[in-house]
Design brief:
13 strands, alpha/beta, 3-stranded parallel β-sheet, Glucose Oxidase, domain 1
């Protein structure tokens, strides 16, 4: 599993996902996930950590989410559990899984499916970020089963490999390929610096177009 230094994670938390998404695209790949995967826990803060991946598929069998439970109990602190269920209209995450994740020091969860127990999660674990397509009370048992752990998955139209960096805030979720972490951080930091200069120019001149003309960014 990719080990990402805490100072690097802190630096990613200090920039917006918009800048990170643009920085990933400068490397010739897409990083941003579909806007359908959105923050369900306002106030939890910016999420940044290496991906631990789980895949779920439809089933009529009643069985526990074995690989998801392993992802929580066996992953390193600071990991982000990423569950690909193909946009399923069921909850692949809930209050008990959040309790286990908090106990293990997991940084957050990103779900291409639903979450339940949102009131409980926000009340008892307000600093734990959950991103999903929606909230829904339906369990996965008898509907979906886990089939893989730490294999490549797809969330929100983006391929995610174990160890890729996941960054998320109120704008949404971005995947940074592990091999591009340093280049993307450098680019995102520069984007933020230039945007601050551009903002000052717009405010000083009273012209949005002047700012766009000089910095070629909107």
């Amino acid at each position: 599993m990719t080990i990402i230094a805490e100072d690097v994670l802190a630096a990613f938390r200090a920039v917006s996902t918009a800048s990170v998404a643009d920085a990933v695209e400068l490397q010739g790949v897409r990083g941003y996930m579909s806007g359908g995967i959105r923050m369900q826990t306002p106030g939890a803060g910016t999420l940044a950590g290496p991906a631990v991946t789980v895949r779920e598929v439809p089933t009529e069998e009643s069985e526990p989410p074995t690989h998801a439970l392993a992802a929580i109990d066996e992953s390193d602190p600071g990991s982000v559990v990423c569950i690909d269920a193909g946009g399923a209209d069921v909850a692949v995450w809930g209050g008990l899984m959040t309790a286990g994740a908090v106990a293990r020091g997991i940084a957050g969860a990103v779900l291409d499916a639903g979450v339940r127990d949102v009131t409980e999660i926000q009340r008892d674990y307000p600093q734990f970020p959950v991103y999903s397509r929606w909230s829904v009370p339906a369990t996965t048992v008898g509907r979906y089963r886990t089939v893989s752990l730490n294999e490549p998955v797809v969330l929100g139209g983006v391929s995610v490999h174990p160890g890729d960096l996941i960054v998320a805030d109120r704008d949404g979720v971005v995947r940074v390929p592990a091999r591009l972490i340093t280049a993307v951080l450098d680019a995102a930091t520069e984007i933020e610096r230039r945007e601050r200069e551009q903002t000052r120019l717009i405010l000083d001149t009273g012209s949005l177009r002047d700012g766009l003309a000089k910095y070629n960014r909107i």
